[in-house]
Amino acid sequence: xxxxxxxxxxxxxxxxxxxxxxxxxxxxxxxxxxxxxxxxxxxxxxxxxxxxxxxxxxxxxxxxxxxxxxxxxxxxxxxxxxxxxxxxxxxxxxxxxxxxxxxxxxxxxxxxxxxxxxxxxxxxxxxxxxxxxxxxxxxxxxxxxxxxxxxxxxxxxxxxxxxxxxxxxxxxxxxxxxxxxxxxxxxxxxxxxxxxxxxxxx
Amino acid sequence: xxxxxxxxxxxxxxxxxxxxxxxxxxxxxxxxxxxxxxxxxxxxxxxxxxxxxxxxxxxxxxxxxxxxxxxxxxxxxxxxxxxxxxxxxxxxxxxxxxxxxxxxxxxxxxxxxxxxxxxxxxxxxxxxxxxxxxxxxxxxxxxxxxxxxxxxxxxxxxxxxxxxxxxxxxxxxxxxxxxxxxxxxxxxxxxxxxxxxxxxxx
Lengths: 202, 202
Hints:
By secondary structure, the first copy, chain A, is of the alpha/beta class. The first copy, chain A, has 6 helices and 9 strands. In chain A, helix 1 runs parallel beside helix 2 (89-102) and helix 1 packs parallel to helix 6.
């Protein structure tokens, strides 16, 4: 870019800025803000809490797609059957920023640090769900979300939630839901949950 | 496995077989079929026709996820703005089989060879859609699918469909739909379309 070139920037908190380059120094660029436009928050605040997969690529993929679909917060939870207990937040944050820019969005999802399963149960939210395959099948997430303003869905590890975790979630008001009749990979389930909520609140 | 071990197999055409190993030779295994169970076809036959992305990984990812979500056919289309005109069908087929097994399904999607954009327009289908960002926005795919038994959605390349392609599709009865207010990557749009149809027909 050269002095006088225009570009658009976002703070990831709902505002786009129209900018013009005023000075270029080595590795640095100054600019003026010529105007701004705000984009309202999505009508539903979507929070997905997922037990990270062994393969980190799958989590990176999920963060990219969830950002495109429109998620407000992504948390990572350490469950009884979790095969991975460490994530690379910085890298996931960069992927989310890149996906936000790619899809021309002004809202960046918050990537929260790994927490214990029990800690997420105290998260404040209007509608709280735990997704797992139950027999007989639970109602579909699509049919359990109404006009709430915020929703949290828990997505378990490859080995699913433990019975104790499911009971603990139920005791804290989490509703058991299914995402379809078939077994889904962890990251697929998480994206499907995010998209189901995005569809309902579109 | 040893002689006498039991396993389950599927033909990918709706039948699961309960099998027992009868003989193991070098690199070969014979088995008897002890019983079978059929799984009905999904109520909606979902066909996604996509212009392949430059990066083949993104197509492999799409095939895996589309199989999990429940797609009946995946076609690849060569569009005016397509950046890739060759796909590796064999590899995509293997990925679909692996995803079918992973999600314990008895239906394998058909992976069709690359065809010209015009050829896909003659495909027979009850509900036909072309997804692209329009101004003002078109209706959402979710609101345009009703009780049809089969649906085809066309997903364009990174550079979108050309105006001539959109006009040609409209002339053949394809309905323009959106998949949300934001720009989506090609493979994300394709999966979102597949999941939207799967949700409606669940």
